[in-house]
Design brief:
heterotrimer; A alpha/beta (446); B mainly alpha (334); C mainly alpha (354); A: 446 residues; alpha/beta; Rossmann fold; 2 domains; six-stranded mixed β-sheet; four-stranded antiparallel β-sheet; 14 helices; 17 strands; globular; B: 334 residues; mainly alpha; two-stranded antiparallel sheet; 60% helix
């Protein structure tokens, strides 16, 4: 293990609160009904292939992604399609989803359900990419970007490093941590597959220092592979951000507005590596994932292996969430997660955790005047000026906001987290990003 | 199930508040305050109390009856202004002058711009400079420091500050060595055994306060380091060229309001630049201006003027100087 | 130079000094030098200014200034141009190119200003009926109760991106007042009881609120005769069930109003009825048939419930007499329609008298 590394610019240290770190992953019972949104990833929606009344098996393709950035969706259970309708998803809006009534647990014949470890990688590079596309693998860190797109390196660029993101810098969440402890070998094989898919010969697994057991475990396992290195990282939020991880691990800075491939890096989450292993070696599509259910009002913070489409409500009930004391339910971590309108929404591919807040925790601190202390600037990992961008955004001066590089914001929330006046900096930054993004797209059209 | 709350991320907040920051500064000022009580006795207590009470009163009155906004006198900012104002005046200042100073600080320099966070100039400094120009006699007759259980250095009741005294001596044609012979020793100056305004006499107390604020992360190191650095370099060069005529850097640092200005007034969150690159420029500029005023200006002391002048440049610095962007300098890719 | 003049002036006021100066040749020289140099500077500056003005002369239609004077000078942008000056330029350009100013309209000044402008440009103004902003949502706190707390900045644009809103309706008003901020005419305010915006008569239909609303709830509609307006106060495109779940006064797309409308003014699309304000003759037949009271009538004299039912029955009878007849009678009914409410009020008056 070499010296601890981290990124330089900005960053904060929110309390970790990893209550569920020593809870092994538990297989969550199959629910009676699942709701599978047809668009779970970044990019274009997929079109459903089945109709009302059809019988499906677990692992069957139910919606096909046809656009370049889109992903296939598979049924996570076996049963009968009740309806295809607009259902409330985690955004609070209604989007098209397939509702399936569960009958038994019948799997698609081609899936290898055994626990046997399969180390030999037999597929070629193109076959790997095709397989990942077919199996509907998306980035499981939260953004849910289709993984096969990441593997297709644009012409003129070469990948040098594969970075596996085991940082899990969000407080509370422990899904990746547990996965590394329990499925370390599979993750490493998944990393090997991704390396083959990318055509790179160096991989680095970045893990933050608050998970010494995972660092030790993975380092031990990685001894077998001389091209995979484990890099321990100093604890600092938002180290799990793609650009921050690259900076920390290989000391390169992705230029503004560019993808990591610009500096020869591709970043994948440990959860994605595991899903890739299952897809390529076991022929199993992405139909379940590890979800952390935690928070101060949860009796038994747990890590569950959950089928996609399971209602969050059931997860909360199983882990003993006290609904009466809860004032806010967040999908994801406390820094970047999304507050939910209702708990009757399904788990999707990008759901890394469900976080319950006590009522007094769920309201923001009182907002006061900006005192121009500049803390938001000091903690911004992208070197932006949130205070200035917020003012521009409040006044609708989008062109100036664009010049001040509002599009570089990674929405990590460090500025809002640290603001002594409790100003909603990130809210306005998001608004600014959306408006400036629109401006840029309109410009492209003209 | 309860009614859920929705809001944008992040859903957690660290425990820093404006109030905590402000009271942190107040705590940092306590050592210097105690030193002033020790050397100037009841006069210092009286000046401090009157300045604080009148600042709080003006802020309360203006917010409640003129602006008709929620009263925020307990956020600590008016308290800081009051203490800083007291730190900047001699301990025998008449009560009515202190009240005028508090009025100028709060009503004109702060509330007329909209209150905390919107004032371009440090309120306490505006108050001090107003008093210095309006009542020069009262503002520049400092009582001699008399320790609580000890004796004064001289028999006089009032006298100039060390800085003013040495500058006058130099002007009258003395060399540095001759002028310094009559001044308090460095050690006395360092501890605070010298004439001057309440808060500026003791270098050690101010340094303790400054370090406390750095430790609590109320201020960053940028402004103090740039300020001290530019003062040391500038005076160091002059001293090196002609030690007979120019004073050494250490003297400049520990006399007058230098350290008070560096730690408590230049670093004022509201009136200093918002990013660290700007802070460095701000600190260096204030340092150079201070020394220019001290050596060639009419007043013996230049800290307040230098900081106020740099305050005026802050919007320009904020506009022109951008922080280091991520990916700004493309690191060698090989 | 100022100093010199100053001293001269000062000295003149004092006679004794003046005599001294006259004796002093040197001062006389200075005075002459000053006068000569000042005149020289003045003349050369005039020449330079003249040359520059000629060189960079911009030939502008003088009518632009005259037209601009007629405009309200609010620079609201309601006409689609950045300001009144630009609009005046566009008007003059269009008038000289196409010999008409059709398609250009100042919503703030209305037909008064446009006819004056047309007069200046030697044209006839096309009559444009005044418009007003209409809030097409009635999801007040009572009709659409809060399901979640929104805890964030007071910005509809942000809240819209964050989630479907406090009452859960993905089409409804978020009640955070972006339209109020956008209005330059003090014409729109939030009603604290309903948490919905209310438009008052100061509205000039500049359209700033329409642009500001992230959900396109506000529409510019015909102000109507005596400010009478009928519109569907809902833009929810969900099916009846889900729409009613969030809001008791949502349009459920039942289509009853479409059937009852004698003028084909109502269309039903995506589970939502829409009244075309140009076709609508304000007959009020659609209002009572709406099961969710989503159709609003404004500035009509109130009716008592019983005669209302009768009126509906009469309508149905009328309709049964044959669609063609009704259609032919359109202009006639239009003229007949306004008295109808009056008769109602008369009835009411009588009743109240009794």
């Amino acid at each position: 293990m070499c010296a601890l590394k981290t990124f330089k610019l900005g960053g904060v240290h929110p309390p970790e609160n990893k209550h569920s770190a020593d809870r092994p992953i538990e297989v969550f019972p199959i629910p009676k009904q699942v709701v599978i949104p047809v668009n779970q990833n970044l990019g274009a929606p997929s079109s459903p292939l089945i109709k009302k009344g059809d019988m499906v098996t677990a692992g069957q393709l139910i919606a096909k992604g046809e656009a370049f950035i889109s992903s296939n969706v598979h049924s996570s259970v076996s049963g009968k399609v009740l309806k295809i309708d607009n259902m409330m998803d985690q955004t609070g809006y209604k989007r098209m989803a397939v509702v399936i009534n569960v009958e038994g647990d019948e799997w698609d014949g081609s899936i290898d359900k055994s626990d046997d470890l399969k180390e030999q990688i037999t597929l070629s590079r193109e076959e790997i990419i095709k397989k990942i596309h077919e199996m509907g693998i998306v980035g499981l860190g939260g953004a849910a970007f289709p993984s096969h797109v990441k593997l297709m390196i644009p012409e003129g660029k070469t990948a040098e490093y594969l970075l596996i993101n085991g940082v899990e810098c969000e407080p509370y969440l422990t899904a990746d941590h547990r996965l590394m402890l329990e499925k370390g070998k599979q993750i490493l094989i998944g990393a090997k597959i991704l390396m083959k898919g990318l055509g790179v010969d160096k991989a680095i697994i970045g893990i933050e220092n608050n998970k010494p057991d995972a660092i030790k475990h993975i380092t031990e396992l990685a001894k077998e592979f001389d091209d995979i290195k484990v890099q321990a990282l100093k604890v600092k939020y938002p180290q799990g951000g793609e650009k921050q991880l690259i900076k920390a691990a290989v000391k390169r800075e992705v230029p503004s507005g560019k993808l990591p491939i610009e500096v020869g890096c591709v970043v994948n989450n440990v959860g994605t590596a595991f899903a890739v292993y299952e897809a390529v070696q076991k022929n199993k599509p992405l139909i379940e994932r590890v979800v952390t259910v935690t928070g101060k009002t949860v009796k038994e913070p747990s890590n569950f292996l959950v089928r996609i489409g399971t209602p969050l409500n059931e997860l909360i009930e199983k882990s003993g969430g006290d609904k009466e004391a809860t004032g806010k339910v967040v999908s994801g971590g406390p820094m970047m997660g999304k507050a939910l309108n209702s708990v009757d929404v399904p788990v999707v591919k990008g759901t890394s955790g469900v976080l319950l807040f006590k009522e007094d925790e769920s309201v923001r601190v009182e907002m006061k005047h900006c005192i121009r202390c500049g803390r938001c600037i000091q903690v911004c990992p992208m070197g932006l000026e949130p205070v200035l961008l917020t003012q521009l955004s409040e006044r609708g001066r989008w062109e100036e906001a664009e010049q001040e590089m509002v599009m570089d914001c990674i929405e990590c929330g460090s500025c809002h987290y640290t603001c002594p006046s409790g100003r909603p900096l990130l809210d306005f930054l998001r608004l600014g990003k959306a408006k400036v993004g629109q401006l840029i797209r309109n410009r492209g059209k003209k | 199930m309860n009614m859920l709350t929705i809001s944008g991320s992040p859903h957690v907040h660290d425990d820093s508040t404006v109030k905590k920051l402000m009271y942190g500064v107040v705590i940092a000022m306590i050592p210097a305050m105690l030193v002033s009580f020790y050397f100037f006795g009841l006069g210092a207590v009286k000046v401090t109390l009157i300045a604080v009470i009148s600042c709080l009163f003006f802020e309360w009155f203006i917010q409640k009856y003129i602006l008709k906004v929620p009263v925020t006198i307990n956020d600590g900012s008016a308290l800081i202004t009051g203490i800083l104002l007291a730190f900047n005046v001699p301990s025998n200042l008449p009560v009515w002058i202190i009240i005028i100073g508090a009025f100028v600080s709060i009503a004109i320099a702060k509330m007329s711009f909209g209150g905390l966070g919107k004032n371009p100039f440090n309120p306490a400094l505006v108050g001090r400079v107003f008093l210095l120009i309006s009542f020069p006699v009262q503002m520049t007759s400092w009582p001699v420091a008399v320790p609580l259980f000890g004796e004064a250095l001289t028999d006089a009741i009032t006298g100039p500050t060390t800085l003013g005294f040495v500058k006058e001596s130099l002007k009258s044609g003395m060399t540095v060595a001759e002028a310094m012979a009559e001044a308090p020793s460095y050690m006395q100056e360092f501890l605070g055994f010298q004439g001057g305004s309440l808060g500026e006499v003791s270098a050690i107390a101010l340094i303790i306060g400054g370090l406390y604020m750095l430790f609590r992360k109320i201020i960053t190191w940028h402004i103090p380091v740039a300020y001290i650095g530019s003062v040391v370099i500038f005076t160091g060069i002059l001293w090196f060229v002609n030690p007979q005529q120019y004073l050494d850097p250490v003297f400049h640092l520990i006399t007058g309001g230098m350290l008070l200005g560096i730690f408590f007034m230049a670093t004022d969150l509201v009136t200093s630049p918002i990013n660290t690159r700007g802070m460095l420029i701000f600190g260096a500029g204030a340092g150079i201006l201070t020394i220019i005023i001290r050596i060639w200006g009419a007043y013996p002391e230049g800290v307040s003027f230098a900081i106020l002048i740099m305050n005026a440049f802050v919007p320009l610095i904020n506009r022109g100087i951008k922080p280091k962007r991520f990916g700004e300098k493309i690191v060698n890719n090989k | 130079m100022f100093l010199l003049l100053h001293t001269c002036f000062k000295q003149e006021s004092d006679g004794s000094v003046l005599t001294n100066i006259k004796e002093n040749k040197e001062v006389n020289d200075v005075l002459i030098f000053a006068v000569v140099s000042l005149s020289a500077i003045g003349v050369s500056a005039a020449v330079i200014l003249y040359v520059v003005a000629q060189k960079f002369k911009v030939i502008e239609d003088p009518r632009i200034d005259i037209v601009e004077e007629e405009l309200p000078a609010a620079n609201c942008g309601g006409c689609g141009f950045p300001g009144c000056r630009n609009f005046a330029e566009a008007l003059v350009k269009k008038a000289s190119n196409d010999n008409s100013i059709e398609g250009l309209n100042c919503p703030v000044g209305g037909s008064d200003v446009m006819s004056k402008v047309a007069g200046i440009l030697g044209l006839e103004a096309s009559e444009q009926d005044p418009l007003i902003a209409v809030i097409r949502c009635n999801g007040s706190r009572k009709n659409a109760p809060k399901k979640v707390n929104y805890n964030g900045p007071s910005s509809c644009a942000f809240a819209h991106a964050l989630s479907s809103g406090e009452n859960g309706c993905p089409y409804g008003c978020l009640g955070l007042g972006d339209c109020v901020v956008a209005c330059d005419f003090d014409a729109i305010h939030m009603d604290p009881d309903t948490a919905l915006p209310v438009v008052n008569n100061k509205c000039v239909a500049c359209g700033a609120c329409v642009v500001a609303c992230p959900r396109d709830i506000i529409e510019l509609r015909l102000k109507g005769k005596k400010e009478k307006r009928i519109f569907v106060s809902c833009i929810n495109q969900e099916k009846g069930g889900p729409a009613r779940k969030n809001c008791s006064v949502a349009c459920i797309g039942c289509g009853k109003c479409v059937q009852v409308c004698p003028f084909d003014a109502i269309t039903l699309e995506n589970n939502l009825a829409y009244i075309d304000y140009e076709k609508c003759k304000l007959c009020r037949k659609c209002v009572p048939v709406c099961p969710t009271e989503a159709i609003h009538e404004i500035n009509f004299p109130p009716k008592k419930p019983k005669p209302e039912v009768k009126a509906v029955q009469e309508v149905k009878v009328e309709k049964k007499t044959g669609d063609e007849e009704v259609k032919k009678l359109v202009p006639v009914t239009e003229k007949k329609e306004p008295p109808a409410p009056e008769t109602d009020t008369e009835k009411k008056k009588i009743k109240s008298n009794i």
